[in-house]
Amino acid sequence: MKTIIRTFLLIVIIFGMALLADQIRPLKQLTLYLNEHPRPYTTIAIVLAVAGWALLISSFILGFWKKGRPMSEDETRQYMQGSGYRRFSGLTAGREFEVETTFRDIKETIRSGSWLRDAGWWIILLGLLGLPLAVYGMFGYFIVIGPPLVKLICAGALLYATFRAAWSFWKA
User: Fold this and answer.
1) 70 forms bridges with which residues in the sheet?
2) 0.85 cut: is pTM over it?
């Protein structure tokens, strides 16, 4: 019964937020403008998302290539069992890589310029460049095409994530 009440309250809150968001005049004007002229903004958002994903996937490929190590057959079997595969036969093979760092390490590497000499940092920096581009592109796309409530939610999420990441990086 609690679940039904919570779900109902969530629907009421979202519906109320949608009605309120539709009453904000600048947001309504922005929505009308973007509905009439979506082309350049959707293109920018899609290009950002594709470039971000390309950099992110490149960092994973580079990580597997430079830092990866073959998994033992037991590690591969354990991984396969944890991922939902119930039964398999024959030899198994896998590859993994693990990179762990902190914002403080990243700041120090950028300040010292050691990332130019150590290709291991390229993996991390490519990922750190690609992830925000992909996130901004995907959220930006929904900001462009979405109704006012979606614009508010996506813009709020982007602002919050940007602020928290910048604050954490600055404090490190």
Assistant:
1) 95
2) no
